[in-house]
Structures are given as structure tokens and as C-alpha cells.
Amino acid sequence: MDVFVMLLVNGLAEGALIFLMAAGLSVILGLMGIVNFSHGTMFLWGGYVSVWMYTKTGSFSLSLLLAMVVGFLMGLIFERFFIRPVYGKVTAQILITLGLMIVFTELVRVLWGPTPLAAVRPPHLAGTWVMGSIIISKYRVFLIVIGIVVALGIHALITRTRIGMIIRAGVQSPEMVQALGIDIRRYFSLVFAGGAALAAVGGALYVPLVGSVWSGMGISNQVLAFIVVVIGGMGSFIGSAVGSIFLGLTGALVAWYFPPAAGVVSVLLMALVLAFRPTGLFGLAVKS
Amino acid sequence: MKTPAVIKLVTAGAKDRKQFVAGSAVALIAAAFLLMLPGFAGHATISLFSRIFILAVFGMSYDILRGFTGVINLGHAVFFGSGTYLAGILFLRLDPTPGTLLLAVIVTVVYCSAAAFIMGKIAFRGGGVIACAMITLALGEIVRHLAETWRDVTMGADGLTFPIPYMFRDRLLFYYYALLFLILMVIVLRRFVLSPTGRVLLAIRENEQRAIFLGYNTTTYKMISLQVGGISAGLSGVMFALLTRFANTELLTIQQTLNALLVTIVGGTGTLYGAIVGTAFVQLIQHYLLTLRDVHPVFTRWLLFFGSIYILVVLYMPAGIVGAYRQLADLLSSRNKKKIA
Amino acid sequence: MKPVLKLENISSFIGPFHILQGVSLEVRPGEAVVVLGRNGAGKTTTLRSIMGLVKPAAGVLELEDQSLFGLPSHKIARLGLGYVPEDYGIFNLLSVEENLRLAAWRQDNATKERQEYILQLFPDLKAAYRRLASTLSGGQRQMLSIGRALLNENKVILIDEPSKGLAPIVVEKVCKALLEVKKNTNIILVEQNFNLACAVGDRFYILNDGRTVLDGGIASLAKDRELQKRYLGVVA
Questions:
Q1: Cβ separation of A271 and B134 shorter than 8 Å?
Q2: ipTM reported for the complex, 2 dp
Q3: Domain range for residue C223?
Q4: Chain A residues whose beta carbon lies within 8 Å of the beta carbon of residue B125
């Protein structure tokens, strides 16, 4: 029982973090038909600027806020200057976002050095709750709560607001949205930057969990987010939520019962899903 | 009725022949230069060029996928790095003899063939360039992760140092081996892209939907392309082992894949030779920038330049060096024709 | 009289293909113009070029005194052009109500009145008001699409083959609706259904191989069997 609860909490917390990245990726993919290969770089920058801010000010909320702002601005700049010139050219988009990934990952090494930096959990979120034989990390519960809040928030945004309406319409036909007199490019920028901000917050939240920040963490987490997007169905928001939880829970289970397989379980899952459902669990046709 | 087609064929042949003569002349001059290079170049330059020859094959193997089939494989380093690791591990566990090298080549071919099969089965299933790129990136990262954790065999992040057969230890001699390897691979890969199979691959790159309508099973052809690209990359990895006598997990990272991707786009995709030009260009720039490190420490940050070249090339020179050269040649020849007219 | 919308020698490419090679037409105030022609003559591309969804390469394209040439689609739409594409362009993930709300430029009283009017014109839409548009039939989609174009003070509405794929009884409904629409707005109607074209249109233009080859009053076309056969392949 206690192991079960622990694994559940670990898995869900892990899933919440992956979700913060996968959600943005998925919505961007669905709306704009592009994959941001520099998404992990936003995650990375979120981690670094939050650690920097936390050591400067000691305020966790300020460091999260800074991560969000930096991610948003990076998203805006990337979209405006590097994605926009190559809209509609899938290969060029992949190549250019890969180039951005390289430059901005290296910039992190220039600014903060090549060695990992230590990151701490804020005092009010550190420590554990003990209930009998069950030990629960406060920070992991905090991550789960954040994940739920963000998921509900995005859901409300998509179903209730005008922006959400435009996103749902744009997923089907950006052209027709334009023909109705709506400048969809503005929303492209906004969604792209919003996704980047989410990823950056994900990075800022991830760092205190693992206790350090290093330049390779962007790519390894991006891989998980990609796997989630493929499993969930490319471009499906619900799919990315379910896929994140799925991957988080399996990851926690395997890490506990059969650690050697921890590195490959995500890929095995992806291969299995693709074998039986090539379009993913919540398959949605992707714009080509 | 048939004559016009025949005439077309003959005239096309004449144009091809003219190009062939020009191409052969360039190739001969290049070959003569490269054969004599060790006579006047220093040790470092010889090593640099050996490196260029081997990495050019890696670049060409990528061009088979990206340039000739339109597939973006972000896990391509798996083949290259595995070639290096397999050779290194075998040299270390068995004797560093030519026999072991032969064994390493065979094992690498079999391994890369199997890996390409598995990778293709997964990556070509999701459909689309985007899905393929995402999935291959994930597969590549997982292999790197495995190599890092499997410390007994790979020595993990410390890297693997190993001896090599005696006959390859002389740098000068190895220069010629590497050149020979490049020439052989150019001949083989050129034959492949000019074969009927290669033509189908081009059709897939241009318009996969149409190739499907024409009745081709495009997935099968992509699998073939991945086999050829994967095995070539694996072989260049084996040669790389002989050059560096060292393997680490860097060879399996996305960065290594991007090295190959960059040289093909800098040189010009879908040209095969572009990969050679691109490799030479990128390696020489890297080499030159490193000599500037005393001027400013930023020059040791190769990746900043690497990424910037990448972005600039994609934005402003999508056809690469060979492509730009061809456009220029076309422009000049059409201008000449106008003058004659 | 000064035309509301004027195209002069419009030339458009799709990829490497030169689809429009000189399309000229004008819509005068109060008029419905029918664009006819065989498949592949460039009718849809003409509408898309007006909307800026295909960027015209050369020619004159004016709405009243404003040139539309080279403007982005959303600006063109806001100048007063409504577009009803062949596949209706209805958003499946939105409800009927949301489809209308998305299209509305403003949420003022005039818009609300027009929305009431649309729902009166198409009672089907009123019944399906809260439903997801993916549940609508082809005819209902067509009505929603036309209704959406009526929501704003559009000067001209471009309608692409409204009768295509619809049952005759539905076509009749659409026809009635178009006649109603015509009272307030100018129309460019691309149509293969000759009866519908004659019922709605005042004047016609015939496109062939991306060029305007003929124009005139719709009545003259209705009489001329030879002409119909030559350009339209109609044997009615």
C-alpha cells in the first residue's frame, strides 16, 4: 500500500512536469503544424534563470515568474524571426529550430559554465508528510497540483475563450480563419510564446525536484515530451495530458521494480503504441 | 515515331558527357592534389584531412536519407557511434589485428542493418516528416542513454580508449586508407543513387503522395534508404575508430547527427558531393576558429558558430554551396547562350 | 455606374502553374454576378485571389476605391468581403453558435439583429444552435456558411458552388436564401448548376483556361444553347 501511494505520487508528479512541456508542443503542432525542436531549450532556460533568480532573491515565486517571462519572450522572438520566414516548409522548420537549440544550449554553458549548478527546494515546499508508513514528498504533491491547475486552465482557455475558439478553428483551417477577417498569425505568435512559457516554467519546477540544473537536461526532457506527443496523438491536447500521466506512472513503476529498463521504457511504450495505433491514442490528423 | 525520343536521349547524353568530362577533370585535379598533399603538409593537416574524408562519408550517408529520400533522421549518430564503439570494443576484447577489423566491419554491417530495420519500422509508422524526426530523435537519445549506463562495456561517460591494428598506426599511411575509403564509398553510393531504386527515392523526396499513386510502396523504399545510409554511417564510424582510437558517448548524441545534417545542408543536399564539400568547409572553419582562441575566448565556443551557420544557411542559402555553384553555372551558361543568339 | 468590386487582368500562380492568365470582371451595385466555366477554368482560384488566399501576381483588384492587391486575407475580409468556400469552411470543433460568434466583427446591436435575421432565414441553424458543427448535414453547413457571411456588413459575398453535392430540395432552399441575400448584398456566385445560376444571377462571366472569355446579361445566355454547350458542357 505505501509503495503504491509513493509510486502514484512520484509518477503523477513526473507526469505533471512532462505535461507542462508536452501541452505546449501539442497545441503548437495542432494549430500551426510545426514542431518546435527548441522546446527543450525553453525548459533549460527556465531552469537556469529560475536558479539564478532564486539565489539572488530567495523568492521561489519570483523565480517561476522570471522563467515564465523569459520563456515567453524567447518564444516570441523565435517565432517572429526564425519560424515565420519558413512557415509551410516543414524541413526548414525542423532544421532551424534545431539550430536554435544548439545556439541557446551553448549560450547556457557560456553564461553559467559547463558544470551543473545546485538547486534547492524552497523551505515551505521542502520536506515530507509522514502518515504511518507512507512518506510523501511535499514538493511532488505541489507539482501534481500545479499540473492539474495548468491542465484545467488550458482546458478552460480552449473551450471558453475567444482565443480558444480561434485555436480550435485554426487547427482545422487557418486559412478560413483568415478569410473571416482574423489575423491568425498574431495568435500563432501568442500560442507559440505561451507554449514556450509553459515549458520554461516546467524547467523551473523540474530543477528543485532533481536538485541541480545542467545543460543536457533540455534535450532529455524534450525527448520525453516528444514521446508523449507521439503516444497521445500528434496535436491532441487531451492526448498529451493522458500520455503524460501514462508515461509518468509507467516510468515510476519501472524505476521501482526494474531499474535497468528505466531508460528504455518510454521508447518501448512509444513503439508499442505506434505498432497498434499509428496515429497515437487520441489520433488527430496532423497538417502536413 | 521513336526518333525524337532517341535524339533527346543522345543530346541529353552529350550534355551529360560534357558535364561528365568537366566533373572528371575536377575530380582528377582534386585527386592529384590530395595524393600529393602529404608531400608538403604537416602532421596536423594530414590528420585533419583524414578526418574530413571519414566524416564526409558520414555526411554522404546522411544525404542518402535527407537529400535523396527526404527523410529527416535525428538518430543517425546511432549508426556512426555504434560503428566506432563496436570496433573499439572488439579491438579491446580481442586482438587489434586486421582480422578483428574485418570482424568489426561484419558485425557493424549486421548491427546497423538490424538497427535500421527496427528504427525504420517504428519511425516510418507514424507517418510524416515531423513524426519521423521526433521518433528518431527519441530513439537516438535512448541509445545514447543506454551506452552511458552500460558502463561495463562502454566505460560510460569516461570514454573508451583502445588499440588498433599495427598497419593503421602510421598517420601518413592512414591518410591514404581514408582517402581510398572515401573514393570507394563515393563510387558505391553514386551507383546506388543512380540506380532505379535511387530514382524512386528521388520521386519520394519530391512528392511522396505521387510516388504512392504510381504504385510504389514508399515505406519499403525508405527502409532501403535507411539501410544504405545506416550501413555507410556505421562503416565511417569504424574508420573513425581507426583515426581517433577512442570512443565516447558524444558520438551517439544528437549533436553528432546534426554535424552530418549541417555538412549536407552547407554543401548542398541531394548532391552527394555536397556532403564532401560541406564537411571540408565545416571542418576547416572549425579548425581555423580554434586557432583564433588567443584572440578571444569566444572562438573556443564552436557550437555557437555551428548553430549560427546552421540557421543562416537554412534561411539564406537553402541550396548549399554545391547548389549555389550550380545556379551560378546555369546563370552563366544561359547568359552565354543569349550572347550567341 | 461605378463598380463595387473590379478585377482587371488578374494573373495568379499556384506553385509553378499559371492558373489565372487574365481574369477581368466587375460587380456593380445591387447586382449578383455569376461566374461560369468548365472544371479547371479558374473559377475557385478567382475567388481565392480576390480573398488574398492566393496572392495574385499581376492585375488590378479593387473594392470601391481601395486596392486589395497584395493585402493579407484578414484585411481584405474586414474591408467587406464574405467568403463561402466550396467545402463550406465550417469549423467542426466549434458549435453553430461559436461558428457565428467567431465570424462576427463586433458584438453590437446591429450584429445581433443580423444574427436574428439569419436564424429566421435558416430555421435549421436555430434548432442546432448549441450543437457541434461536426454534427451538421451538408445543407446545414452550407446555410451556416452563408449565414456567417451575412453576419457582418459585407459589401460583396463570394460564394463557391453552393449547390454542389446537395439534394435538389436543399438546393431549392439555398436558392431561396440567396435571393433573400441578394436584396441587401452584392454576390459573386460560382455555379455549375445552370438553373440556380439563372435564378440568382443578373449578369454572367465565362472563364476558360484562366481567362475571361465572355460576359453579358444572364437572359442572353439562357437563350443561347450553342454558347452553353461550348463553354459549359451543359446539355440541358
A1: no
A2: 0.87
A3: 5-232
A4: 274-275, 278
